[in-house]
Amino acid sequence: MTPAGRAGAGPVAAPVRYDGLDAEELGRRTGATEVQVLASVGSVLDVAHQRAAAGAESGLLVLADAQTAGRGRSGRAWHSPPGAGVYLAALLRPAVRPFSGALAVRVGLAAAAAIEDLAPGASPRLKWPNDLVVAGRKAGGVLCEARWSGARQGWVAVGVGVNVAGPVPAVVRGTAIALAEVAAGATRVALLEALVPRIWALAGRPAALDEAEREAVRGRLWVEPGAEAPVGVDGDGALLVLGLEGTLERRVSPG
Is the pLDDT of residue 174 over 90? Predict the structure, then answer.
C-alpha cells in the first residue's frame, strides 16, 4: 500500500509550513478556526472568497509565502516575493453588515497597532484609505472585499499585506520600507500573532466607527508633504478635509 492508502497512488505531498510552523500551530497562535497555508498563489483574497462560497466559517485564515497576482486598491499589483512579507486573507461573517470604509479603517488601525508591538517607536501611520506608512514610506496595505446578497449575511475577506523582511526592490526603495529596517529581528509569525486576533475582534463591531475609533484615526493619519491636511474621518470611514470656506468636505476616494 502506498502512503495515500491505495495501490498505485502517488506519494502524499507534505503540508506546506510557514516559517517552520504547520497550520495547527499557526491556528493556536492566531486564534484562527482554520489555517490554509499555500507556498504560492495568485491572490489570498481569491482563495478566501472561494472557500467562503463553499461554506467556510468565519475565522478562516489564508496565508501564502508568495503571491503571483497580489492586488491592492483599484486593482493595483502588490509585490509579494517569497518569504519577504505577510500576505494574508482573514474570513469574517459579521452579524451586522459593516460600512466598507469603516471596516478598512479598523483593519488599518489593527495593523498599525500590531506593527507598533513589533517596532516600538516606529510610529506607524495610516495614509487614507488603505496604506500603512512607517518612517514616511509604505510598509503595507489593507484591502477589504465584501460579498452580500441584499440584507442576507455574506462574508468579508480582509486582506493585509506587510513588508516584513524585505528586501525592498530598488525601484521602490525611496517610497517603500520593510519592517526589518526599523525592527531588527521582526518576523512574519510575530506580526501574525499581534495582528490576526485583532482582526477577529472586528466581527462584532457596529457598522459605523465610534468617536474613540475616529479619534484613533486622527492620531495616526499621514499625508504626503504638500498635500492637503485631513481633519479626520466620519463614521463611514470617509476622509474629512477642510474646504476653502472653512466647511468640511467628505472624500470617499483619493483624488
Answer: no
